Description:
mainly alpha; two-stranded antiparallel sheet; globular
Amino acid sequence: xxxxxxxxxxxxxxxxxxxxxxxxxxxxxxxxxxxxxxxxxxxxxxxxxxxxxxxxxxxxxxxxxxxxxxxxxxxxxxxxxxxxxxxxxxxxxxxxxxxxxxxxxxxxxxxxxxxxxxxxxxxxxxxxxxxxxxxxxxxxxxxxxxxxxxxxxxxxxxxxxxxxxxxxxxxxxxxxxxxxxxxxxxxxxxxxxxxxxxxxxxxxxxxxxxxxxxxxxxxxxxxxxxxxxxxxxxxxxxxxxxxxxxxxxxxxxxxxxxxxxxxxxxxxxxxxxxxxxxxxxxxxxxxxxxxxxxxxxxxxxxxxxxxxxxxxxxxxxxxxxxxxxxxxxxxxxxxxxxxxxxxxxxxxxxxxxxxxxxxxxxxxxxxxxxxxxxxxxxxxxxxxxxxxxxxxxxxxxxxxxxxxxxxxxxxxxxxxxxxxxxxxxxxxxxxxxxxxxxxxx
Length: 441
C-alpha cells in the first residue's frame, strides 16, 4: 500500500476537487484537465480554486467517521458491528489471541481520512500564501479555518492512535511520529495562531461552508477545540480559559454546535453511522447492524432518557460470532442526519472535568447535574471528592457521548481499560489502534 502522504500529492486535488468541479467553477491554468497538479492550485490560485480547496477540506474531514465510531466503539465494548466482515467481531475484540493488524481497514481508515483532510488544509495554506486573489483580511479567514481543522484532526488521531505526525507538509520528508503530549502542545499553539488569524478576518468568511457559521461562530469553535486540547493535555486552567471564549453554555441547548452535514446528492455522501431500524418481528434488520453492548444497557441508571433516545430493543436478540445483544442503535434517524463535530453537551462535560482538575469541585458537580437533569436523572448524590466526581464524570461521558469515539480514549487516559468486560473466553482488550504499516516504511 502506498504511503498516504506521498500518494496524496495527486489524490488531494484529483480525488477531492474532481467531485467539486462537477458542481462548481473549473480550475484555471491546468496542464492536464483530467489530473490537475498541486502546483496548479498552490501558485497564483484564483478565489474559485481557494473556495474549492475549502470545500475539499470540509468534505474530507468526514472521511473515516464510520469506522472511527464503530471500531473504537467495539474496542470500548460500547457496541458490536454485525456485518459481513469477521474482523469487526474478531480482530477488534482480540478473539482467540488475534492481534490488531496494522494494514487493515480499521487501522488505515481514520488515519488516512484525517491526514487527507490535513493535507488539503496544508494545500490551502500554501495556496493562500502564494496568491493575490484575495485581500489580507480574507486570507486570514482562510488561514484560521485551515489551521483549526488541522488541529481538530490531530486530536482525533491522538484519540485513536495515541501518537501522530504534525509535520506532514513535505510528503517526501515527513516529520517524526510524536507522543500525545507533544502533539497536543503543538495543537494548542496552532489553535492560538488560528485564533489570531480569525481575529483579523472581519465578520464574514468569503468562502462556502456547510457545517460552520460566520467568523465569530468559528472563533467559538476554535476555542472549543482549544479547550479540549488543553484538557487532554492535563491543563485544567487552560481548558477553562478557552471555554470562556467558546460556545460553552451551562444553561444552553445541549445540541448547539457545528455539525457534519450529509446528503444523497451526487458527489456527496450519506451518514456512515446510520443503520436501518428494525420495524417489527416480521421486519427485523438482520443485515448490517450496530448492536448495543448489553453492559451499556444494564449499567444505566433507571430513567436515563439517553438509553431510550439513542437505542431501542430489537424484536429479537441479534447474534453473530458468539456475541449477542438485545438492542440496536437509534443514534441517527435517517441516512442524512447531521453528526455533531462538537456540541455544548460535550463542552459542559469538558468544563466539569477541567473543574475537577483545578479542584473547583462544586463547579464540577453543578455541571454534571446539568447533564444528569437533561437525561431525566436527579442531582448527583455521591461524595464531593475529586475521585468520586471523576467516576461520575466518566459515567456521564459514557452515556452522553455513546458511539462517538470517546469511550476508548477516556478509559485509556484514566488507566481504566482493564475494567472492560471480556465477551468471550480468549478475547482481549485493545485501547489503541496501530499506526498503519505504510507509515513505518
